[in-house]
Design goal:
It comes from Streptomyces griseicoloratus. It is a single chain. This protein is mainly α. The protein has one domain. Helices cover 68% and strands 0% of the residues. The protein contains 6 helices and no strands. α2 (32-45) crosses α3 and α4 packs antiparallel against α6.
Protein backbone atom coordinates (compact mmCIF):
# COMPACT_ATOMS: atom_id res chain seq x y z
CA UNK A 1 0.00 0.00 0.00
CA UNK A 2 1.41 3.36 -1.05
CA UNK A 3 0.77 6.26 1.33
CA UNK A 4 -0.62 9.51 -0.14
CA UNK A 5 2.40 11.54 0.96
CA UNK A 6 5.62 12.28 -0.91
CA UNK A 7 8.88 11.98 1.06
CA UNK A 8 9.61 15.68 0.40
CA UNK A 9 6.47 16.61 2.34
CA UNK A 10 7.43 14.71 5.49
CA UNK A 11 9.68 17.35 7.15
CA UNK A 12 7.31 20.33 6.76
CA UNK A 13 4.30 18.19 7.71
CA UNK A 14 6.08 17.00 10.85
CA UNK A 15 7.22 20.50 11.82
CA UNK A 16 3.91 22.26 11.22
CA UNK A 17 1.82 19.37 12.51
CA UNK A 18 3.71 19.08 15.78
CA UNK A 19 3.64 22.86 16.28
CA UNK A 20 -0.11 23.15 15.66
CA UNK A 21 -0.99 20.01 17.65
CA UNK A 22 1.01 21.33 20.61
CA UNK A 23 -0.71 24.70 20.35
CA UNK A 24 -4.12 23.06 20.42
CA UNK A 25 -3.21 20.84 23.36
CA UNK A 26 -1.90 23.84 25.30
CA UNK A 27 -5.29 25.53 24.95
CA UNK A 28 -7.18 22.61 26.52
CA UNK A 29 -8.35 23.62 29.96
CA UNK A 30 -7.34 27.26 29.47
CA UNK A 31 -8.46 29.41 32.39
CA UNK A 32 -11.35 31.86 31.98
CA UNK A 33 -9.17 34.98 32.05
CA UNK A 34 -6.81 33.70 29.34
CA UNK A 35 -9.75 32.48 27.25
CA UNK A 36 -11.39 35.91 27.51
CA UNK A 37 -8.15 37.61 26.46
CA UNK A 38 -7.62 35.29 23.46
CA UNK A 39 -11.27 35.57 22.45
CA UNK A 40 -11.09 39.37 22.72
CA UNK A 41 -8.16 39.54 20.33
CA UNK A 42 -9.87 37.17 17.88
CA UNK A 43 -13.24 38.97 17.91
CA UNK A 44 -11.52 42.34 17.40
CA UNK A 45 -10.16 40.98 14.12
CA UNK A 46 -13.21 38.85 13.29
CA UNK A 47 -16.34 40.45 14.84
CA UNK A 48 -18.57 37.45 14.04
CA UNK A 49 -16.70 35.55 16.76
CA UNK A 50 -18.28 37.87 19.33
CA UNK A 51 -21.37 35.66 19.41
CA UNK A 52 -19.35 32.84 21.01
CA UNK A 53 -18.56 32.56 24.70
CA UNK A 54 -14.78 32.80 25.33
CA UNK A 55 -14.56 29.24 26.71
CA UNK A 56 -16.55 27.87 23.76
CA UNK A 57 -14.30 29.73 21.33
CA UNK A 58 -11.13 28.38 22.96
CA UNK A 59 -12.55 24.85 23.12
CA UNK A 60 -13.39 24.98 19.39
CA UNK A 61 -10.01 26.52 18.53
CA UNK A 62 -8.22 23.88 20.56
CA UNK A 63 -10.13 21.04 18.88
CA UNK A 64 -9.52 22.54 15.43
CA UNK A 65 -5.80 22.93 16.05
CA UNK A 66 -5.49 19.39 17.36
CA UNK A 67 -7.42 18.01 14.36
CA UNK A 68 -5.29 19.96 11.87
CA UNK A 69 -2.07 19.02 13.66
CA UNK A 70 -3.05 15.35 13.60
CA UNK A 71 -4.01 15.56 9.90
CA UNK A 72 -0.57 16.97 9.11
CA UNK A 73 1.19 14.31 11.18
CA UNK A 74 -0.75 11.30 9.91
CA UNK A 75 0.65 10.05 6.59
CA UNK A 76 -2.72 8.55 5.58
CA UNK A 77 -4.14 12.06 5.14
CA UNK A 78 -3.34 13.20 1.59
CA UNK A 79 -1.03 16.20 1.40
CA UNK A 80 -3.57 18.12 -0.70
CA UNK A 81 -6.17 17.76 2.07
CA UNK A 82 -3.68 18.65 4.81
CA UNK A 83 -2.40 21.57 2.70
CA UNK A 84 -5.89 22.98 2.17
CA UNK A 85 -6.54 22.76 5.92
CA UNK A 86 -3.22 24.42 6.75
CA UNK A 87 -3.80 27.16 4.18
CA UNK A 88 -7.29 27.92 5.49
CA UNK A 89 -6.20 27.93 9.12
CA UNK A 90 -3.09 30.01 8.57
CA UNK A 91 -5.03 32.49 6.39
CA UNK A 92 -7.15 33.21 9.44
CA UNK A 93 -4.03 33.69 11.55
CA UNK A 94 -2.44 36.01 8.98
CA UNK A 95 -5.70 37.97 8.92
CA UNK A 96 -5.49 38.28 12.69
CA UNK A 97 -1.95 39.62 12.36
CA UNK A 98 -2.94 42.12 9.67
CA UNK A 99 -6.11 43.32 11.46
CA UNK A 100 -4.74 43.66 14.99
CA UNK A 101 -3.37 47.13 15.74
CA UNK A 102 0.23 47.22 16.90
CA UNK A 103 1.25 43.88 15.37
CA UNK A 104 2.98 45.39 12.35
CA UNK A 105 4.54 48.73 11.50
CA UNK A 106 2.23 51.30 9.97
CA UNK A 107 1.88 50.87 6.17
CA UNK A 108 4.21 47.87 6.31
CA UNK A 109 4.11 44.11 6.84
CA UNK A 110 7.18 44.28 9.07
CA UNK A 111 6.23 43.06 12.53
CA UNK A 112 6.60 45.14 15.63
CA UNK A 113 8.16 43.47 18.65
CA UNK A 114 4.63 42.55 19.80
CA UNK A 115 3.76 41.16 16.36
CA UNK A 116 6.74 38.88 15.86
CA UNK A 117 4.96 35.91 17.45
CA UNK A 118 2.05 36.27 15.00
CA UNK A 119 4.24 37.01 11.98
CA UNK A 120 5.37 33.37 11.96
CA UNK A 121 1.96 32.50 10.62
CA UNK A 122 3.12 33.66 7.18
CA UNK A 123 5.43 30.60 7.20
CA UNK A 124 2.48 28.35 7.91
CA UNK A 125 0.57 29.96 5.05
CA UNK A 126 3.54 29.54 2.71
CA UNK A 127 3.89 25.89 3.70
CA UNK A 128 0.18 25.21 3.16
CA UNK A 129 0.18 26.95 -0.22
CA UNK A 130 3.33 25.04 -1.14
CA UNK A 131 1.61 21.73 -0.41
CA UNK A 132 -1.45 22.67 -2.47
CA UNK A 133 0.54 23.98 -5.44
CA UNK A 134 2.92 21.02 -5.41
CA UNK A 135 0.10 18.48 -5.22
CA UNK A 136 -1.89 20.27 -7.95
CA UNK A 137 1.20 20.40 -10.18
CA UNK A 138 2.12 16.76 -9.57
CA UNK A 139 -1.48 15.59 -9.92
CA UNK A 140 -1.75 17.25 -13.33
CA UNK A 141 0.97 15.01 -14.76
Amino acid sequence: MRLPIAPRHVPPRLATGAFILNSGMAKRGMDEQSATQLHGMAKAAYPFLGSLQPTTFVRMLSAGEMALGAALLLPVVPTMVAGIGLTAFSSGLVGLYLRTPGMHEERSLRPTQDGTALAKDFWLLGTGLGFVVDEARCGAR
